[in-house]
Specification:
287 residues; alpha+beta; Alpha-Beta Plaits; Immunoglobulin-like; 2 domains; four-stranded mixed sheet; four-stranded antiparallel sheet; 7 helices
Length: 287
């Protein structure tokens, strides 16, 4: 049986908020019996965009992470619900049934992702229902993925075997797999948001002038093992992304035929810009 899944490609999201606005437009002022009660005009973001800034000027990276109900195959909210207030449909969608969930605030606390919102006026827990009312009418995409200008958000309606093939081929991940909830919202390039980077700028004296050093070879080592290699660009800049935060000591080895070799040792907590690394002529001492 085909089931619904959502795939979000993190680097393609640039915080346009079209998915969040589409969600608000669909559910604010509208009632969909059996699917969702009206979303409050303020306070709820059933599809939210989390922002993270990394690095230091002039090397700063901003990433955005759309988050919503994960429509888990093992939903904690369903375990906490009474009287059939949460329905896990055969097509994978999780519905908080508005006619049955009134007063059940424990559902908000049950969600480890913080994706269930409490409607104080209606005394009702609410979450994004995967636009199930539209899909049941024949829509092929959720409104958010339909309106996403960069295709950062995609709706997939496939059998589980096909989805697992896509997960493997595209290296998809879910949020907090340690929770054991088996989400149906997958992320591509999730490391862009959660991993950190180290970067810097190379400079050296060329014909008596301090210039940017292009095409220098840089090797990143940890515990004596090579992790990655790269070259500096036309501005002398370099960057090693995808590193684990608070991962401790590293060594950067720089080599270029025009200059002497240089090693830079540093400790990595959050993303770091090492500044301008000045290479010296062979036999000279680098500054």
């Amino acid at each position: 049986m085909k089931k619904w899944n959502l795939v979000i490609d993190v680097p393609l999201c640039f915080n346009c908020n079209m998915c969040a606005l589409s969600c608000n437009d669909e559910y604010h002022g509208n009632e969909f019996p059996g699917y969702a009660a009206e979303m409050p005009s303020r306070g709820h973001r059933w599809i939210d965009i989390i922002q993270r800034e990394q690095g230091q000027v002039p090397m700063v990276e901003v990433s955005y992470l759309p988050v919503t109900c994960n429509h888990c195959d093992n939903p904690p909210c369903m375990k906490a619900a009474r009287d059939g207030a949460v329905n896990k449909r055969p097509d994978g969608i999780v519905i908080i049934v508005p006619e049955k969930a009134k007063g059940q605030k424990q559902l908000v606390e049950a969600c480890p992702y913080g994706a269930i919102w409490w409607n104080e006026e209606k005394q009702l827990p609410q979450a994004w229902p995967f636009d199930a009312h539209l899909l049941d009418q024949g829509w092929k995409k959720t409104r958010g993925s339909q309106g996403c200008p960069t295709h950062a958000m995609r709706t997939l309606h496939v059998e589980d075997e096909e989805m697992q093939r896509i997960v493997k081929e595209d290296k998809l991940e879910v949020l907090h797999p340690e929770y054991g909830t088996q989400p149906r919202v997958y992320y591509k390039n999730l490391g862009r948001f959660y991993k950190v980077f180290v970067g810097g700028t190379l400079a050296g004296e060329i014909n008596g002038v301090l210039e940017c050093v292009e095409d220098a070879r840089l090797v990143l080592e940890k515990d004596g093992k090579v992790l990655a290699e790269t070259k500096s660009d036309a501005y002398g800049d370099f960057r090693f992304p995808g590193l684990k935060e608070n991962s401790g000591a590293y060594r950067l080895k720089v080599s270029d035929a025009r200059f002497g070799a240089k090693d830079v040792d540093f400790d990595l907590g959050q993303s770091i810009y090492l500044g301008t690394i000045v290479l010296a002529q062979p036999g000279a001492r680098a500054g």
